[in-house]
Amino acid sequence: MALKIVISHKTKYKYDRPVSLSPHIFRLRPAPHSRTPIEAYSIKITPENQFFNWQQDPFGNYMARLIFPEKTTELTIDVEIIADLKTINPFDFFVEEYAEEYPFEYKEETKKELLPYLEITDKGKLLQDFLKTLDYTPRKTIYFLIDINRKIYEYLNYNIRMDPGVQSCEETLNIKSGSCRDYAWLFVQTLRHLGFGARFVSGYLVQLKSDEKSLDGPSGPEEDFTDLHAWAEVYLPGAGWIGFDATSGLLAGEGHIPLACTPTFESAAPVTGMSDVCETEFFFENSVKRIFESPRVTKPYTEEQWKAIYKLGFKVEKQLEKGDVRLTMGGEPTFVSIDDMESPEWNTDADGPHKRELAKNLSARLYDEFAKGGVLHQAQGKWYPGEPLPRWSIELCWRKDGRNIWHNKKLLSLFADNPTVPENADILFLETLTKHLGITDTTIVPTYEDAFYFMWEEGKLPIDVDPTKDDGALLVKNKLKEILKDGKSKAVGYVLPLNNSIGTWYTSDWTFRRNHLFLIPGNSPIGLRLPLDSLIRKPEHGEFPQFVPDNFSVKGRLPSYKKTAATRYENVVNNGAPINNSYFIRTALCSEVRDGKLYLFLPPMDSAEIFLDLIASIEATAKKLNIPVILEGYDPPKDHRLESMKITPDPGVIEINVHPAKNWEELTHNTLTLYKLAKQSRLGTEKFMLDGKHTGTGGGNHVTLGGISPADSPLLRKPSLLRSLLTFWQHHPGLSYLFSGAFIGATSQAPRIDEARMENLYELEIAFSQIPKDGDVPFWLTDRLFRHLLTDLTGNTHRAEFCIDKLYSPDSSSGRLGILELRAFDMPPHPQMSLMQNLLVRTLVAWFWKKPYEHDLVRWGTELHDKFLIEHYVREDIKDIVEQLNRAGYKFQEDWFNPFFEFRFPLHGMVQINNVHLELRAAIEPWNVLGEEMTGGGTARYVDSSVERIQVKVNHFIEERFVLTCNGVKVQLNSTGVKGEYVAGVRYKAWNPHSSLHPTIDVDTPLVFDIVDTWNKRSIGGCTYYVAHPGGRSYDSYPINSYEAESRRINRFWEFGHTQGSIQETESIIQGGESTSKVEKQESSKKFSYKELPINFEFPYTLDLRKK
């Protein structure tokens, strides 16, 4: 993030008569050691008749000394500073080993150098008493200093003092209040008493309004703010002078710009001087203004840009309505914890206790926002190979027509005032429920744990295995202990065989060979452990008929079943329950008390009508008994008259399956609301690598396109739309890579159709030719044409950039939903960026619906992973897209995509070398899957993460004069078409993991870039890029926020580090097909030479340092 500011400081002294001024000292120029880069500085002082000299005091601070030869009636000082507010991590330093722990003593030599900063001037009783209150427990020196800083911040009350000077420590401690000067001086004297070298600092404090409100503590100023300020610095061996601001209790950061750092506050005063005796009026004004802001994840767009994007969304909506497209858009955004970035559940594992807690928190918030009057349902989620148990799923389900499914949310356990229920609630609930369903309660079956099974399992253990220490044996032992504690005859829960046909509920008797229903051993809900194979195989009354729902049938309005349940209850109470023995039922509703809560396991249901009927009866029962419930079991049936939203776990993330939006306004509301509620649930979208690289959550943000009902889907009604989208994406690789996650390529989660098998394009063109031009198109045709082409290398239909698994699958009705899933979209960090992505897709659908995009496919070949993996050419591709959209009547702007470029291709650094401007940006590197290897857990296929890529770009570069080298290898630059502007990619081995594609090649880092002037025969400058902290700090935790991540990125780029010495070029040497230009250092035995590798015609845009 680049953020440049202007600080304006105006001071005016107005005298009531002409006065003579003594020589004045102005300490209003940023000190030489300011860590915040100062790009420009100006000071203007009147009267203009003056003698002006810049000086430096004994401590290296800048001082302006002015002599005014004539009398004046006013003195004005105008200061303007332009600063680059780069994020600074105040903790990024080393401390010498002997000073790491407090207490310590400086070395004698250091003590002599720090003598002025060790002088104690305040020795009063109150200060001595204050020193006694400090905690002197030995600990890390930095923690000890932080505690003192915080102690002063908490001990004193801040006030603004306009009178000059600094209070003594005694006065400050006596009144327990002071200004920033008083806080700083108390801190300085406290540290000196403890043996630290400390100095007083005056300077500017810049505080900018936060883009987003903080969830924890204050959010900072409401407006951008600057003022003169004071703080202290303490000398730590190895680290140097470290700033502490006791006024805020924090360390000094990029907003602290020092002007003067001295042993005493008198010599740090911003202005020193005298005038004749007179009356003086004093005026001052401080302001800060942002003059440049690159897009950032917390504020990707200006208000004007966002208004234009939002307005265009409605214009596209009118086009979609006019064309009767009937498009709906949903998605699968993913979120991570903002508090825990280290645990396996937020990195690799799919499940975890913290993840479940946050998911329940979010589901409650989403219910109140989207699903009022709906139900909250917990179900078994996906079950992947290698995972011991299925994942969970939380679903919110509500009616589209606005009518209630569930009326009183307090009867849902998540919202109940007291979710704990009596022990017999399970049987009591089912007995009452049967009355609301109009059936007998005689078929209710108690369920039991199979104690004999666990005794048998324990009996099988070897005699030398201790059941209390072996994990597998301990599970068996604990389960057996639990059964014996509760008693073998105690029911775990109850089962009600249940099904519905044409609005009537049926039940039947279940009998077993062992006379009782013994559950399949395990810890899952009883509904997942029913011994269904033990039920009678050939029942007397025949099987209950099963129906496969047709998602394409025309369906009427859904009724309400609240009165129906009440009527059935009255009939049963008054007339008794009817006996319906027409069918044998193999599905059941289960009730179980777990952890003091009542769980109801729902059976599978064929239609929305049956589901609504059952839920109405369950709520009526819950209301009558005043028992809150948790619904689990089978999902509600798919029906376009019902809306649903799911919260599910995925490796490292929580995934939200967002319900489809019918229009732009609804889509905007859904997206903005979801991000807001996720943040309130302490879920975020930011994730960082150890080196500070900003990534998406890792779970993606898949976009789904469909219709209100499957039959309305524009993809099924017009297959040429899918052809147009496929062709346009294939023509523009920038769409695949700008919005993608960290992993791309043939073995990624969503490979392009031309990344895996090149013959796919030939076959795809044949499929395109089979799309009818006119007339009605059968729905199955789209699936049949593209199913075997839109896959990954292994034929997996789900792992594709364009996934049609749910379009019109022949496998099941759940796969015939008319949905196209775009799976290459990564999770954008801001909702406006997500909406921008969606707007782009909506615009393309509107355009291609009206005018199909039918052109020949492009054989990109190796250009895909060469040209289109660096920022410049992706930007050129996006520029071409914007031009096409503008010609089609959709007024997109190129700078709307800048946030994505800053996120996907972050700037590492730039340097000005004479007239040449050199810039380094991150580029994309496909991390392909390696071959199979044996591990402790079985067979694994690692990803080759050893190689990275960077883009280097130069401006005002004279190709005939200059040569750009990287680590002694000439970079073959490619002209961008702009005079003097060239660009190239550099591929290098950054790491040396235990498993990589080329384990014998050593790492190439750090990367040293040189601008070699062949006319003057020397390197005129350069820069150095590190992949890890250049000082050797080995980070063992991820950055906690974007500021720390940015500081980690910044400290890996040095604006210096060119190769030294003059050079002399000798003749080129051809060795093994390589052309090498030797460049030797004159008047020295050392040699500096650069290699010139022949251009690789397969990858002409990239220099691969592994070939050097």
From TrEMBL:
Gene3D superfamilies: 3.10.620.30. It holds the Pfam family Transglut_core. Residues 172-248 form the Transglutaminase-like domain. This is Uncharacterized conserved protein, DUF2126 family. It comes from Algibacter pectinivorans.
